Amino acid sequence: MTTTIIGYPRIGEHRELKFATQKYFKHQITAQDLQEKAKALRKAHWETIQAAGIDQIPTGDFSFFDNTLDVANLLNIVPKRYQDLNLSPLDTYFAQARGYQGEAGDVKALAMKKWFNTNYHYMVPEIDDNTEIKLAGTKPFDEFAEALSLADHVVLADIYAARETDTLGMSSAALTEKIKELGTDAYYFPSFEEIENFVSEKCIHGDLLITMGAGDVVNIGEALLK
Predict the structure, then answer these.
(1) Residue 66: left (phi > 0), alpha (psi -120 to 50), or beta?
(2) CB neighbours of 90 closer than 8 A, spacing ≥ 6?
(3) pLDDT tens figures, 181-225
(4) What's phi and psi for 222, nearest 5 deg?
(5) Most buried residue, 131, 179, 206, 210, by most Cβ within 10 Å?
(6) How sure is the predictor about 179, in pLDDT bands with cuts at 50, 70 and 90?
C-alpha cells in the first residue's frame, strides 16, 4: 500500500508563519525575510512527512494566506483594482487577501466564503470582463524544484511521455537549471541509458539511490541492480 496526504498545515509548529507575516505587515521584516521563513517551514514540513513514513510527499500545497487565492493568481485572475496599485506580486496578493490602504491606493479585500459547513473560509476569486485566464506564475514548479533540491544529487529524465503537449515551457531541462540555482548538484539526460551510465559511474558503496516517476522510469533501478 502506498501512502500520501493531500497537504500539510502550513502555519508551523509554533505558528511561525503567522508571526512572520504579521511582522511583514508591520514592516518589521523584508519580503526576502518572509520568503526565507516560508522556505524553512516547507523544508521542515517535508522532513516531518518523510519521517512519518509517508510514501508520496506533496509539494505546492504551501500558501501565505489561501490556496484558492493562490490558484486564482496563478491563472492571472487578479481584479484590475488590485493590479492598478502597481505593487509587487507578493503585496498584490496580500492586498487581495486583506485589503490595502497606503500611498498606492485604498482597496478592500476580496470576499470570503465558508467552505460548506466547516469553519474554513476561502477567498472568492473575481473575474473582470477583461480578465485573460492564463498561466501567470511558476509557484508549483518552483516549490517542486525546491523539494528536489533537498537531495544531495538530482538526476532527471524527460517528463513522462504520456503527458499532454507541452505548451507551458515546463521541461526537465528547465527544472534542472532551477535546482542548480538553489545550490544542488543536478543533471538532465534525455535517455535512460545515459542515466544508467552516469549513475553507475557516480554511485559508490553505501549510497542510497531513489528512482521515482510515472511510466517506465522504474526500469532504471532494475537495470542498475543487474
Answers:
(1) beta
(2) 31, 34, 64
(3) 999 999 999 988 999 999 888 888 888 888 887 778 888 888 888
(4) -65, -35
(5) 179
(6) very high
CA 180 – CA 3 distance, rounded (Å): 29
Distances (CA, A) of 23 to 94, 121, 148: 13, 23, 29
Query: How long a stretch of residues is the chain?
Result: 226
Q: Read off the C-alpha cell for 196.
A: 544508467
Residue identified by cell 507578493 is 90
d(CA 197, CA 194): 5
What integer is the mean pLDDT of 38-57?
95
The C-alpha torsion from 17 through 14 and 2 to 56, rounded to 10°, is 30
Q: How far apart are CA 198 and CA 155, in angstroms?
A: 9
pLDDT of residue 25: 96
Q: What's the whole-model pTM score?
A: 0.87
Q: Would you say 18 and 11 are in contact if contact means Cβ atoms under 8 Å apart?
A: yes
Rounded CA separation 7/45 (Å): 10
**Dihedral sign, Cα of residue 16, residue 17, residue 20, residue 25:** negative
Instruction: Report the distance separating Cα 206 and Cα 156, nearest Å.
Output: 21
- What share of residues in the chain are helix, strand, coil (percent, to 5)? 40, 10, 50
Q: Is 172 exposed, middle or buried (0-12, 13-18, 19+ CB in 10 A)?
A: middle
